[in-house]
Amino acid sequence: MPLCETTQNIDKLGNDGLNIPQLIESLNNFIRLRQFNDGITLLRSEAARSQIDESIRALFISRLAQESGKTAIAIEYLRPFAQVSPDHAFTWGKLLHETGQIELAQAAWEPFWSSFEPSNQLPLYLQSLLVSPNTSAATLYYRHAHWASKILDQFDSNVRDQELIAICRAKPQIHVAYFAASWDGTTIRRTFVHHLKHHNKKQFRIFGYSSTHIPSDLEGLFDHCRIVPHDVDQFRKLVSEDTIDIFLDTTGISPGSKFPAMAKRVAPLQYSYLNHFSTTAIPNVDFVIGDQLTPSIEQESFFSESISRMKGCFLSYCYDTAIPYEESPPCLSRSAVVFGCLSSQGKIGSLFLKACAEILSKSVKFRLLFRNHFLTDLNNKRLFIEIASSHGIDPSQLILLDGCSHDEIFQTYSQIDISLDTFPYNGGNTVSESLWQGVPVISLRGQNFVGQYAASILIHSGLSELVTYSVSEFVDCAINLASDTPRLLDYRRSLRSKISGSRFNDGKHFAERLEEMFIRDYCSWQARNC
Question: Quick one: pLDDT at residue 15?
């Protein structure tokens, strides 16, 4: 029976009679297509009411609402059934996570997390641990180890050593494969692609791997492009045929990562980089890439991997110098000082909001601007105002803007005097974008990897004065900077050139540092094995 795609089809199916598998198939299709109204119509049909339990209907309604950007509505529908089953608890926690109420999400998930399925549910749970202010490094490790045990049926420790040693001796160049589930995303383009054309082709042969496709404008940056199979054994065969020495996965624990294959050892050296700033707890992932500042030495014992530390900052962002920016802070032309946070809503948690409330309480002329896709929906805005108010923020001091395109994000900084970085999970893109637009960012360096990399960005950019080490320092730094108009003006006019001068935006410099790290690790491996 064809999937129903219109209200007319729903009515027809209702008259003909839908069995439960057809209902579920149709509802899942509506969720995938984000067809909220049609999905609701089907759920209210007599066929659905007679065959689907009320708690299941509430679950589907909440998922439809969530995928349509109506998180606040989804919460109200699911609230009475939040703990009915692991699936209900997972969706309930996911909704709370999206609003930034991470402590409530963790409380909802705690009784059920060990039964979550490993492909989609557990990765989101692990991501939520990174946002939680109560998560220790030990908890991160042991929960990741649980996830790893779920996705791996077996792993080989040294089964391919002789084959890998032969591969390394057989060619003059080091073969490096970069894997991304998709090379189309804004983040991967801004943070990684810009260095590819600068690799030393005499020393390195570069392979681009993807699960889907490699965009035509990126194909020329690789020596070879591969659409790789999902099957682990077929993928290992492909990597072996390409005689890869270094394999680097940029997907993290998101669906599509190659960790199951890496656990069976596809290359002599295997790295995890970007998209998940924590241990993976995956056997045979040799390295997580960091730098001299992050993750801290104290964190290393809670990683199953070694930390391969690059010189300089381990992150690099590339922005077009033609992107316009205002050379004067907006506070010069109005009476208010506007703080801003353009992070995703899920990072805007209770500790951060309490610090923001303390800052805003110091002056009626202070404002706080938020912009993200969660805030596009009016009911979501109302919910966030309630949450912010519960932490002491006066709603009259809030400026809430709809989500927008990435290009529009850059222009939003013309309305902001000072950016406030989220904690305990820092921003990466939002920090570097703000600096590029001349807006200083105040960051609180935390205990875990995710709370330390913004400090690395700032310190390596020569802006250590914007790094704080306690909530009270964070608040004081914001208040002091807000009262120093000449300093804000200087930042506005000098930050872009300062960032460029620090070579933070320099793809060639990043490629050189990455290659230096690769050669160091590769020579060390050869010394041990060849």
Answer: 40
Domain contains 377: yes
Cα(77)–Cα(59) distance, integer angstroms: 8
Distances (CA, A) of 410 to 369, 380, 406, 414, 429: 14, 23, 7, 8, 11
Residue 452 lies in a domain: yes
The pLDDT of residue 171: 79
Q: Which residues contact 463 (CB under 8 A, 6 or more apart)?
A: 435, 440, 498
* Domain contains 170: yes
CA distance 53 to 35: 21
Domain co-membership, 348 together with 463: yes
Kindly report, residue by residue over 143-181, the tens digit of the pLDDT.
999 999 998 865 444 445 556 666 666 678 999 999 999
- The whole domain housing 399 covers 330-501
pLDDT of residue 8: 36
CATH number (domain holding residue 280)? 3.40.50.11380
Indicate if 484 and 525 belong to the same structural domain: no
Q: Residues of the chain whose pLDDT is less than 50? A: 1-17, 155-159
State whether 334 and 479 are in the same domain: yes
Any domain includes 322: no
- Please name the amino acid found at residue 437: Q
497 and 515 assigned to the same domain: no
pTM: 0.91
Position 160 scores a pLDDT of 56
Residue type, 49: R
**The pair of three-digit structure tokens given for residue 116, joined into one six-digit string:** 């979550």
Detail the DSSP E strand segments found in 174-254.
Answer: 174-180, 204-210, 224-227, 246-249
CATH number, domain containing residue 451: 3.40.50.2000
Positive/negative CA dihedral, 404, 409, 414, 419:
positive
- As a 3-state breakdown, the chain gives helix, strand, coil percent values, each rounded to 5, of 55, 10, 35
What Cα–Cα distance (Å) separates residue 380 from each residue in 40, 271, 391? Answer: 19, 39, 17
Q: What is the pLDDT of residues 107-151, one digit of tens each?
A: 999 999 999 999 889 999 999 999 999 999 999 999 999 999 998
Whole-number Å distance between alpha carbons of 485 and 222: 47
Same domain, 440 and 395: yes
- CA-based nearest residue to 306, from 279, 274, 275: 279
Q: Can you tell me which residue has the tokens 């990597």?
A: 239
The Cα–Cα gap between 352 and 419 comes to 13
In this prediction, residue 73 carries a pLDDT of: 93
Write out the two tokens for 25. 């198939």
CB 170 within 8 A of CB 243: yes
pLDDT of residue 39: 76
- 413 shares a domain with 513: no
